[in-house]
Amino acid sequence: MEIRGALTLRKRQVLIFFVLLGLSETGPESVRYSVAEEKEIGSFVANLARDLGLGVGELSSREARIVSDDNEKHLHLNLLTGDLLLNERLDREELCGSTEPCVLHFQVLLQNPLKFFLVELHIKDINDHSPTFLDKEILLKISESTTLGTKFLMESAQDLDIGSNSLQNYTISPNSHFSVKVQDSGDGEIYPELVLDRMLDHEKEPELRLTLVALDGGSPPRSGTTSVLIEVLDINDNAPKFPQKLYEVQVLEDTAIGSWIITTLAKDLDAGNYGKISYIFFHASEDIRKTFEINSTSGEVHLRSSLDFEAIQSYTINIQATDGGGLSEKCTLLIKVLDVNDNAPEVTMSSITNRVPENSPQTLVAVFSIRDQDSGDNGRMVCSIQDDLPFILKPTLKNFFTLVTEKALDREMRDKYSITITVTDMGTPRLKTEHNITVLVSDVNDNAPAFTQTSYTLFIPENNSPALHIGSVSATDRDAGANAQITYSLLQPQDPSLPLDSLVSINADNGHLFALRALDFEALQAFEFLVGVTDHGSPALSSQALVRVQVLDANDNVPFVLYPLQNGSAPCTELVPRAAEPGYLVSKVVAVDSDSGQNAWLSYQLLKATEPGLFSVWAHNGEVRTARLLSERDAAKHRLLLLVRDNGEPPLSASVTLHVLLVDGFSQPYLPLPEAAAEAAQTDPLTVYLVIALASVSSLFLFSVLAFIAVRLCRRGRSGLVGGCSVPEGHFPGHLVDVSGTGTLSQSYQYEVCLMGGMGTDEFKFLQPIIPSLPVHDTGRNIEENENFRNSSGFNVQYKV
Ligand SMILES: *[C@@H]1O[C@H](CO)[C@@H](O)[C@H](O)[C@H]1NC(C)=O
Ligand SMILES: *[C@@H]1O[C@H](CO)[C@@H](O)[C@H](O)[C@H]1NC(C)=O
Ligand SMILES: *[C@@H]1O[C@H](CO)[C@@H](O)[C@H](O)[C@H]1NC(C)=O
Ligand SMILES: *[C@@H]1O[C@H](CO)[C@@H](O)[C@H](O)[C@H]1NC(C)=O
């Protein structure tokens, strides 16, 4: 910068305003004037006429003119008055700059005679300019570590004025750090220097704004200012600082991964890179680094993997904050994990019995322990099973339990229990664990097999095929397995004479009963025995039932004709007197049927007769009577074919041939001819012999009857019977005769037929009546009870020949 107007004070004192008058003998006369700059146009400078010694009017007459060096009309000459006036504002700085003294040269020309004068006009400076700085603002960057007394050269200001009006001093706005020192550059110019008086602190005042003032020496002085911005440059003089040495935070263990936990923000007063902090976990364990992460720029701590209170309850983490300059600081972060009820109770079965025998109280079923990994209420547990089960839980040690049966179990009532052990903790929310145990009740042979009925009655038609399935007995056993496997058997009958083993057999497995042989109703009508059933338990249990077998009668017996004998070579021949009245009892066919009931109801019928209409047969009792009076014309010999039929389904029948001989009187004895009977019906040539034979037989018969009656009369004189030995009596219920094997042959039809044989022939035998063996209500004289015979043969009608 150029400092102008470097006039010495002494020179300026010499250039005081004066007018030098006088003419130079050798050269043109010159006058000097001085005028301050910046005067108004028209301002009076001097009276030139007077100064040059010219008279008034001479100037105009001599045509005075002012000629300047630079042909500028700075001045105006009043020709009338001779006054020299300013024709324009004179600016010293414009005309002369920093040149001093500033002089304008003029010539005043006069004619008639030509004459010129020199005029020097000194232009005096006034303080019309203020000091100015080139820059409105000056930026200074000063490190805060700058030492005291350090000087900072500042740009100088400029003032166009010169001399004392020029720049004289610098000052600075009041501040605590800087003062200004004015320095002389040696060539008259001065410049300011900022001097650091007090240490700067970036952290306190990162920048300062000062005003530098330049002052000139005018009166009054003028000033110019510039603004100085001082940026205090930071140095890394501050380590990062945590607001707290220890951070404590509580985190629920179920906090989601990635959750924000805390921000440990350190502060560094330094700026820029020195204030940039990065965070790390300092010497962190593997656990910590696995579980947490810290954002190196923001200091936020986040959860990286899930927490587990049960594994680690707290973490102590050292966090180091480091700034860009390498300064660091630590703090401690204590993270406490809070328990959350995140663990359900656990049940650990130590031993378990899946099969419990019935009938045994206080049996150990299971031993188990329970556990909850949570703490506090979250880990307190309650253990229970269903109420309605015959089992109880018994705590043994802490968290150890046994499950025992409360009372004896009954497998037959319930053979399986599903026990749910429920363990609930007291946390919020409550967590529970269920463990199911299935207990099977094993069987004990505590139930005897039982027959479905206490007695069974089976009906078997006689003449069954052998091995016929006649029925079943059935038993059940409420136990299970072998205890329920049952075997049927026949028990020995109470009656030792019953040959049970040959009659029936039983299938041991299913209780089916079979007849071993064909049964004969006539031999055995009913029998009973016991069947037993035994299970396979140990010890085995058994029970028994009565089986009663009824043999059903079948019409399997043909009526058997007792009289007259049918197989004899000398058949019976009835003798009938020709004088017999109608209804005369010729004979009575006697037949029996071993069957019973309807099968034994017999009816008689005349099938064929030599002379139909002569004889009639009573259907129900077999009596053969004459139907009309006999006459001489009737043949002497008659042959009647009778049919005896039972009422079975289908009916069975037997035929009887009856020979009747008509005789004129019982006086004529007839001796039967053996061959006559056989051949009677066959050939006509034999008729004669037959007649003879019949006659003889009839007579013999008559004789026999008479003799027999006589004998009977003698024997039964006491009984008062008048008739012969054949005594039909009582009523008859129908046309049938019941000769059932049960001995119910009506007593009215009990006959004693006595044929007293004479003549030494075998054909006539003493025939005893047919007597039922079972209770006979009346006489019972001729009944010979023979139990053995009855039982073994099955015939309950006995007869004796
Ligand atoms: C400059 O100004 C200061 C303060 O105003 C003053 O103390 C000092 O004397 C001045 N210097 C000169 C040379 O006038
Ligand atoms: C760290 O935090 C900053 C600011 O919150 C974020 O912009 C940046 O992505 C984060 N860095 C990581 C690795 O998360
Ligand atoms: C246990 O049994 C109960 C009832 O039978 C059933 O609801 C439950 O699901 C079972 N629990 C398990 C774990 O099998
Ligand atoms: C006739 O039958 C009866 C009874 O069955 C018997 O006792 C008798 O010997 C038989 N007579 C002849 C000759 O066959």
TrEMBL record:
GO cellular component: plasma membrane
Source organism superkingdom: Eukaryota
Name of the protein this chain belongs to: Protocadherin beta-14-like
GO BP terms: homophilic cell adhesion via plasma membrane adhesion molecules
Annotated ranges, domain Cadherin: 27-133, 134-242, 243-347, 348-451, 452-561, 576-671
GO MF terms, alphabetically ordered: calcium ion binding
Transmembrane segments: 688-711
Residues annotated as signal peptide: 1-26
Record membrane topology: Single-pass membrane protein
PANTHER family for this protein: CADHERIN-87A (PTHR24028), PROTOCADHERIN BETA-14 (PTHR24028:SF81)
Keyword Translocase assigned: no
PROSITE patterns: CADHERIN_1, CADHERIN_2
